[in-house]
Design goal:
The chain contains 2 helices and 9 strands, in the order H-E-E-E-E-H-E-E-E-E-E. With about 190 residues, it is α+β, with helices and mostly antiparallel strands. Strands 2-1-3-7 form a 4-stranded antiparallel β-sheet.
Length: about 190
């Protein structure tokens, strides 16, 4: 081979190398994009997005809330007042949840065992289309009420009406308080009239 032929060959090889790098990059990107599109169409990126609501109020998991319940004063001493806490789970995602649980934890003074016995005796009628299993347990400090659900499909909402024992918590003495903003005050004890 002559010197001129070698020069032409090296120029052609250099041009081919310069052109093949962008072509390889574009081919790799197209292959990645095709795989991404196939995965997206097949639902590989779908996930459940569960939000929780208290009644109609959607809860933000980053902001805790305090819940206060009240009822009119009962005329008879020793009467048990049971209310319900409507908690709703909503699957706003594109995929079903698996093994969803709702757990309520009560201090022992709420006497949840008593409530669960009353409620289980009173429950009648057809069961839900969703298979929900309710269990109760306790430890040294708390009673637990747990609702287990095998799955919650997309765009489905489940409301659990958790029974709660409304106990007498009247304030009988003035109580000094301090808010989170260090504002001091006093809760003044006085009878609540119906």
């Amino acid at each position: 081979m002559s010197k001129k032929t070698l020069q032409i060959f090296s120029v052609v090889a250099s041009i081919a190398a310069v052109i093949s790098v962008p072509i390889a990059i574009v081919a790799a990107w197209l292959a990645w994009k095709g795989s991404w599109d196939i995965a997206q169409l097949s639902g590989s990126f779908d996930k459940p997005i569960v939000t929780v609501a208290l009644g109609a109020l959607r809860l933000d998991p980053r902001n805790p809330i305090d819940i206060l319940f009240g009822t009119r004063a009962l005329d008879k001493k020793g009467t048990v007042t049971i209310g319900s806490l409507p908690v709703t789970l909503i699957n706003e995602g594109n995929k079903s949840t698996e093994f969803t649980s709702i757990v309520f934890r009560y201090p022992l003074f709420f006497d949840y065992k008593f409530i669960s016995e009353l409620v289980s005796e009173a429950q009648e009628g057809p069961s839900s289309v969703l298979e929900i299993k309710h269990t109760t347990s306790n430890d040294e400090k708390f009673d637990y009420s747990t609702y287990n659900l095998a799955s919650l499909n997309p765009s489905v909402a489940l409301t659990v009406e958790e029974p709660i024992h409304l106990i007498d918590t009247k304030i009988r003495e003035d109580v000094p308080i301090t808010t989170k903003d260090n504002v001091s005050g006093t809760v003044i004890a006085h009878p609540i009239s119906a």
